[in-house]
Specification:
Radius of gyration: 21 Å
Number of domains: 2
Order of helices and strands: EHEEEHEHEHEHEHHEHEHEHEEHHH
Distance between the termini: 18 Å
Largest sheet: 7 strands, mixed
CATH class of the largest domain: Alpha Beta
CATH superfamily of the largest domain: Glycogen Phosphorylase B
Strand content: 15-25%
Helix content: 25-40%
Oligomer: single chain
Structural class: alpha/beta
Strand order of the largest sheet: 3-4-2-1-5-6-7
Amino acid sequence: MIKNLHILFISSWYPSKIHPTNGNFVKDLATCIATKHDVSVLFAIGDFKQPEKYVVDLFEENNVKTVIVYFRKHASKTINFYRKLRALTIGLSHINTFDLIHCNVVNPMGIVAYLLSVLKRKPFIITAHWSGFLSESNYENSFFQKLFSKISIKKAQYVIPVSKRLKNAMIYKGYKGNYNVIGNVVATQLFTPQKNSNPLFEIVHVSNFSNEQKNINGILNVVKKLSEESTGFIFKIVGDGDLNSLKKQVSFFKIPSKNIKIIGTQTPKGIAKVLQNAHLYISFSNFETFGIVMAEALASGTPVITTNTGILTELKQEKYITIIPVNDEKRLLKEIVFHINHRPIFNGVEMHKKITENFSCNTISNAYSNVYRKSIINYSS
């Protein structure tokens, strides 16, 4: 295996002072890759409130050199596009020569990765995460977004969807490329099974509260019905979405306060603690490309109920994974009631091992190292 490559990460999403949790999974991947290679991250984002035209933020975290360039955002998309390119150029001047460009999230940075590849004569790969490629999503790319995405996907040495479902969706929509599926990285050293002696049955859901994707209304309706059948539980809903809007939804469904707790943005350690203390994790999404919290829950020894979406549907099915149809509230209620009444005991060590074998940093970084090696060899030949 080639060692000590310098990988340039560029991404459409990345945590910043504007959006502290946006693209956390990209940051996690960069941190993971940095255990085997040198990694620099280049990211540009606009800020309407910024008086200066450009501000460069340089720092190193977990062996990842990070260059975030903030530009003064404008009402004009054309001006913003120019300023973003200019910001990336400024940021690039702070980064040493690299061996390969690793683009995360196809749109809009995919075409930038391709142009940079041509300019610097370096290979590039793309990791695809975006749920907008799925047929279940109502999102429609513009003509130019589709065009630029198709060009960048076709020109990349490899395109890495995080699940088979996403790969198949991209191919179905006409995005031709050299595909190789590699999942998201799970911090298995953080998400570990712990002894749970909590007498009150805890159900947990973690997301951004997007009703279109996560079906929050469906979850709350089930929790309301559950509260009419059983009082011996608490539902914890955790995330970085609009808390005020969520509180209004909870009020609308008239869920008793003793049965629900709303928790805002958490650090990874905070999420790990919530999952470790839970008896059950639920995902009721309409669509998912991966669904990383489901994998984190299993790594923590917590069983999962999920709709037929996300990465758990692509793993060998076990008793601690319950898959139900999308939007089937009756089935979700039935399965939750079963867990509350019977409190099935599962082997947390076995659950953790399953996620470690598939999505630990060592597994994912080895897979990417192989892709990097092949990309460089193919590009040079």
